[in-house]
């Protein structure tokens, strides 16, 4: 007998099976019962919830895996994180957290006795209770289970820079059909075994989704083996062919699990002890393919139709308890099949001989600090703001790329924080002008590296893969487990992760309400190559609507910043990377643009979030302006300032106020958003009765939506992107969408009542200048030098007329 065989012969099958039965019992009880949790009397209809909600089908498989991971944790003192791909299997996560004692430690109203078990059952999918899926309320969870596809990316994000952690990602076979999950298998190419932890994927094939078979479950085993091998894994198969042969299932799975953990440790030891960093190229990581019946241990048949092992087990197998006496009888048989008397004491607590099988303290997967990342979070060491700020002799005199400035700042962040900050992006770090980071780090890459490649290495702080889904999922997992990071992306294509953003925003909203969850580093999107820069790209690259999507979420979570120049970009980035529990969206250009603010002015302007640009306007102190020119975004700000210059030169007596918005949420009322302006503050800036011409980076109706309750909203006219343009010059893009300086100046003439009849000739001159600029782009293929070389002090009456 080998050492392994001897070890397996002494495996505590009885203990494993007892824990599994207890977890299954507690899971079924959550779906069905509101009373009589321990079946101390015969079950009656009043014991059962009026509305039966939940998902049984995947739950027993999750409980089975969780049970065996606890054994490994206890024997090896191995830190583990449990990531539940089949998120509707939430009963399993809650059941195991209660069995481990964590649930009662966090929620004192849910005790570890019979009364607590009754309360645990009643709250599940119940008004005022908890959701049916893995959720922020669930101890040990970092994964919102309401939408499928993100578990594997989250697991990999969790292990980056966590060398002692193994994240076990249970991937449902329905989930495996989603796009985000499919690309997540490639994450093996980005895990550095020398500095990172490991992910153990468990592909759980129970054969069915809600009503259909699953692709991978119907795939021949050899074909599936080749598929996973091609992804870079060494697949180990465990098949439960007889659902009643549970002892064999326990032994088979225990043996394979131990083999996989050994393989992981071997890979890591080679990488961490070899002078060359281990084997060249990406290692082949182990994974498990577990085939078990859907609804395992549940009713085999209901109403004469097969249930266990079919799609009928997906949700609630016995759904007519209150109308069908046979269903009630089957439910009681089902619950008693787990022999609750052998699992729980007379007072309802878990029997001590079973309870001792749980890991202790923070090693419990329901109590691990990796699932409550704020417990592990360390503040970033940030560079001094002044080290990167651009000195400005006068507003607009210096042209600097905001993204290049941000790149230098991120370079120093990476240098000062070599173990807890990463930059994520879909092959666009250099394109978005953040290349300065490569002065101190490389891009992580485990496959073959060739001589022609640049900035590729086994270790590095930049994560580039051409999948926005994967970048989003990695960063979510990285933040949720206590680190910091940024997601840099082209503005138009960040929409690919709209749904992932939704789920994360919902998670964060609930997370903020739970006192036991500690604050996390904020999620920061840095979006560039934006809609107004189409020198190389066309209509497909034009979509500023991610902002619209973002502001649909709860105000406590959302922040949107549109820095107009390099120094405000620097100040915004500095702020966002030190924020907690928010989602920050920063949108700015990558091309050199005028720098309007000196270092100190920029910091003050960002702190205010909105402010009057005295250098651009012509209003007199103590006198109300005739018109307000508002702007948000780098190109709209440039055009608004230039429009003000045309108007000052052409209509010298006109009193113009220019208001720039950096923090877009300042436009909302203070009762609707924590950054919002009070009614008095808003009226002070925008007046209560004067025309407001607003040049905005994105779709114009968002500004109306944010300000529709304001006193002066009827006088607000917004110019923004309106789906016009292709590959063209920057100023032509502005003209096509009517946010150019000439159009804004004409808008002022049209909306200031005293100007319409007196400034017809000036308006005509503006039209003519606009037409000449448009024609020049068609004739010369570029913008007029008077546009590209314009500076703040160039406008004069002669130029304007």
TrEMBL record:
Domain of life: Bacteria
Alphabetized UniProt keyword annotations: Lyase, Thiamine pyrophosphate
Keyword flag Transcription regulation: no
GO annotation, biological process: carbohydrate metabolic process
Top EC group: lyase
GO molecular function annotation: aldehyde-lyase activity; magnesium ion binding
Xylulose 5-phosphate/Fructose 6-phosphate phosphoketolase N-terminal domain ranges (all copies): 12-375
Record flagged with keyword Lipid metabolism: no
Cofactor(s) this protein cannot do without: thiamine diphosphate
EC number: 4.1.2.-
Chain ranges of the Xylulose 5-phosphate/Fructose 6-phosphate phosphoketolase C-terminal domain: 590-791
InterPro entries per UniProt: Phosphoketolase, THDP-binding, Transketo_C/PFOR_II, Xul5P/Fru6P_PKetolase, Xul5P/Fru6P_PKetolase_C, Xul5P/Fru6P_PKetolase_CS, Xul5P/Fru6P_PKetolase_N, Xul5P/Fru6P_PKetolase_ThDP_BS
The family this protein is said to belong to: Belongs to the XFP family.
Protein name: Probable phosphoketolase
Organism: Arthrobacter bussei
